Amino acid sequence: MKRLIGYFLLILHLTVFTECHQLLRLPFFMQHFQQHCATDSQMNLEKFLKVHYLSPIFGNDDFMQDQQLPFRGADCHLINTTIYLYAPVSIKIEPPTELSAVFYCYNETQSPQHSDFDIFQPPKDPSLL
Questions:
Q1: Is the pLDDT confidence value at 99 over 80?
Q2: What per-residue confidence (pLDDT) applies to 7?
Q3: What would you report as the CA-atom Rg of the chain, rounded to the nearest whole angstrom?
Q4: Other CB atoms closer than 10 Å to residue 125's CB: what's the count?
Q5: How far is it, in rounded angstroms, from Cα 120 to Cα 8?
Q6: pLDDT at 77
Q7: pLDDT of residue 17
Q8: What angle is formed at CA 128 by the lines to CA 127 and CA 129, rounded to 5 degrees?
Q9: Element (H, E) at 35
Q10: Which DSSP string corresponds to 79-115?
Q11: Cβ of 97: how many Cβ atoms within 10 Å?
Q12: Which of 105 and 9 is assigned the larger pLDDT?
């Protein structure tokens, strides 16, 4: 019973929230293809698909029937849009009032007193402190 309910919910989700509901129009596709084959002996599936899906859409005798074919248009049932609105932020950085005449760069003689890796030391015995 759980499997049947799972299949039902999966099919329901696919037909409502995706374009899979277009597959329900396949019987009409077959019927319309047979009508074209009956009127035109040179009609094959490739030509039918080219005429109905790849050529420009224009109004003809069976335009309303053509519009009922599957995947002829997109039916979007769910639109999810996220809009972020941010207040404008202005940052003003004042230039320094005094410029130093002496610039220091790092070398071995002016090494910092501690290293970034000093924290990675083995634990010390508190009795020795």
A1: no
A2: 93
A3: 36
A4: 7
A5: 58
A6: 58
A7: 78
A8: 95
A9: helix 26-39
A10: ---------------PPPSS--S------GGG--SS-
A11: 5
A12: 9
> Distance of CA 100 to CAs 63, 97, 103, 126, Å?
81, 10, 7, 45
CA pair distance 13, 4, nearest whole angstrom: 14
CA distance linking residue 95 with residue 106, whole number of Å: 24
Would you state the structure tokens that stand for residue 112, as one six-digit string?
């910092």
CB crowding 61-86: b at 16 or more within 10 Å, else e: eeeeebeebbeeeeeeeeeeeeeeee
Task: Label residue 128 by pLDDT band (50, 70, 90).
Answer: low
- Which residues neighbour 84 within 8 Å (Cβ) at sequence distance 6 or greater? none
Share of residues in the chain with pLDDT > 70 (%): 78
Q: What is the mean pLDDT of the chain?
A: 79
